[in-house]
Design a protein that fits this description.
By secondary structure, the protein is an all-alpha fold. The strands form two sheets. The chain has a two-stranded parallel ribbon with strand order 1-4. The N terminus and C terminus are likely disordered.
């Protein structure tokens, strides 16, 4: 009987077909959930400062300009290191890079909670961003290379929905921890206060994410490109056995193959200085992305992430400050009747806002709930639309809301619009990434994802700092500029070549 089954097995099957044959099930969703938790912990680290800033800014006596710099410092670090970690993930493995960067992030987070002054805080946040790059980039590629083609976009959206719950966790934890009257003298004038405890608690999800990831292997696609064909097939057999609740030996494929594109050797030269060899290969990989075959994909993806994700992260960074300002004005005035820009342009001294009322954290909790629900809805029903149509709809709707926000004079409508902008932009991110993953061959995917995500971090860093500067006297210009960027992105996304998916996939 075994001989008959062996004869019936197919050989030389493309890797993507083998993954599709393994199907979706418990193994696939363990990967998605683990990656979602990894992303969740990473987002906590990059956005944690935004919720801690009202209290930390008062303790360290930071101006609003400095607060804007501090909240975007992590994105500056991510901007510097994005391409480097993408290259490492393409050459040494997605899992290995994630394990290293998460361990480094845990160390940096502990140091972060003990930062004694503004300079130290800025340096630590910068290095935090550097290490988080490897986690973010590799996590999305990791999911994309484990999921079969029919559930890849859904898996990425579920992963993003898990990540979005950080916007429930962060304000909820802030509401509980930050008001604590914690005052523990450590050394000299340094005192351990509640916002420092808030930061150090971020290490708990990081540790859990590392534990879950340690139980998983490297992605099949990466291993195959590295020449580990038997190991790749064994992993896919395991995926099949867990997903289909069958024996490994029943997997109907005996050997694998890939498109010639993905069989290009990923190895660097063995002679000469190895650092120089790796650097040269990284430059070659980047150069390939700007060849005639890929340059259009690369440039469009870069602009989409620069404008959409950059606008999203800039909005998230300022959401606690904006909602806090709105709620404070509402509670101290019988009639609201002011616009958002009236409030932000009249922001005055940063120290004047140190009498903090944490009721505005409720808006952050509701925002996180809305993001998670929207991601699930898009994952279950929204993907029945063509993905570029979905991006276009969300882009134009976001632009309209962004434009409308500056004219509203109702506190509830303003907060609703600010939250809607973030939710819509946040939901588009995994949809764009799912397309990027499919447009490039395996040995270039992390490099491509890193390059395009570098654009998103550039947009995030510039957007967050620009809004902080413009709030002083040109608030409306800031929101009109965001409206223009998102509108152009919606027009450009029409030209995303999703129809070429099968040609590019492995």
């Amino acid at each position: 009987m075994d001989k008959i089954q062996q004869v019936e097995k197919k050989s030389g099957v493309p890797l993507e077909v083998a993954l599709d044959t393994a199907g979706s099930g418990l193994y696939t969703w363990y990967v998605v959930i683990t990656s979602g938790l990894i992303g969740f912990a990473a987002v906590l680290s990059i956005q944690g400062m935004a919720f801690a800033m009202p209290l930390a800014g008062c303790e360290l006596e930071l101006s609003y300009t400095t607060r804007g710099i501090m909240t975007s410092m992590g994105f500056n670090g991510m901007l510097v290191s994005a391409q480097f970690f993408g290259f490492l993930a393409d050459n040494f493995g997605r899992k290995r890079v994630m394990m290293f960067t998460q361990a480094a992030t845990m160390v940096v987070t502990v140091l972060w909670s003990f930062a004694p002054n503004t300079t130290a805080l800025g340096i630590i946040l910068f290095f935090n961003g550097i290490f988080l790059t490897g986690t973010f980039t590799s996590a999305y590629v990791y999911v994309g290379e484990f999921c079969p083609s029919d559930t890849r976009s859904k898996g990425l959206l579920i992963m993003t929905a898990m990540m979005s719950t950080c916007n429930i966790y962060l304000p909820a934890m802030a509401w509980v921890i930050l008001p604590l009257d914690l005052y523990i003298p450590v050394i000299g004038d340094f005192v351990f206060t509640s916002w420092r405890l808030y930061i150090i608690l971020i290490t708990v999800p990081l540790a859990l994410a590392m534990l879950l990831l340690s139980k998983l292997p490297e992605t099949p696609k990466f291993l195959y490109v590295m020449g580990k064909h038997e190991e790749t097939l064994e992993i896919i057999r395991t995926i099949y056995a867990v997903n289909q609740k069958k024996n490994k030996d029943e997997f109907p494929i005996s050997s694998l193959c890939q498109n010639s594109e993905d069989e290009i050797s990923s190895k660097v030269a063995t002679d000469g200085n190895q650092f120089i060899n790796y650097f040269n290969k990284m430059m070659r990989d980047i150069a390939v992305l700007f060849t005639k075959k890929y340059v259009f994909f690369t440039l469009v993806s870069c602009f989409l992430l620069f404008s959409l994700v950059g606008s999203c992260n800039a909005s998230i960074m300022w959401f606690p400050q904006e909602t806090g300002r709105i709620m404070k004005h509402y509670q101290s005035n019988d009639i609201f009747n002011v616009t958002l820009c009236d409030l932000m342009e009249g922001i005055g001294s940063a120290q004047s806002d140190c009498n903090i009322n944490y009721d505005f954290m409720y808006a952050g909790i509701l925002l996180g709930i809305s993001e998670a629900i929207t991601c699930v809805i898009v994952g279950l029903w929204g993907l029945k639309l063509d993905r570029k149509i979905l991006i276009c709809i969300c882009s134009f709707l976001t632009a309209a809301i962004c434009f409308l926000t500056v004219f509203l004079t109702s506190q509830y409508l303003i907060i609703l619009c600010l939250a809607s902008i973030i939710v819509l932009l946040f939901t588009m991110f995994p949809v764009i990434i799912s397309i990027v993953v499919e447009l490039f061959p395996t040995q270039l995917r992390s490099t491509a994802a890193s390059l395009t995500m570098t654009s998103s971090r550039l947009g995030s860093a510039l957007g967050g700092q620009a809004l902080g500067i413009l709030f002083d006297s040109h608030c409306r210009a800031g929101y009109f500029g965001m409206t223009a960027f998102v509108t152009v992105a919606g027009i450009l996304c029409i030209f995303i070549p999703t129809g070429q998916k099968k040609k590019q996939e492995v």
